[in-house]
């Protein structure tokens, strides 16, 4: 959805979540040569949750990727790796 990425707030929340998501590449698209903004809609949804005082638990991360892609593409292990830096950085 191009409009979500266009409306994305590129603040510290966004950049930290983006770094964690891109490092894990949960769907494997960056490794296949997808553009660097491939996960920006998912990142914005997750960052928005942090902005509003919510937490990024592994289950929240899996749920977001299940909605944007399809169930099972972001594993629990990957979600833990994405969530871990958020607990210490934010």
In short:
This protein is mainly alpha-helical and 90 residues long.
| Low-pLDDT windows of residues | none
Count helical runs. 5
For the sheet with most strands, the description reads:
none
What is the percent of helical residues? 55-70%
Net shape: globular
Number of strands: 0
Could you say how many structural domains there are in total? 1
Q: Output mean pLDDT.
A: 89
Radius of gyration: 12 Å
Order of helices and strands: HHHHH
Distance between the first and last residues' Cα? 27 Å
Question: Strand pairing plus helix content: what structural class?
Answer: mainly alpha
Beta content comes to under 5%
Task: Reconstruct the topology from this structure.
Elements: H1 2-6, H2 12-24, H3 40-51, H4 58-68, H5 76-89
Helix pairs in contact: 2-3, 2-5, 3-4, 4-5
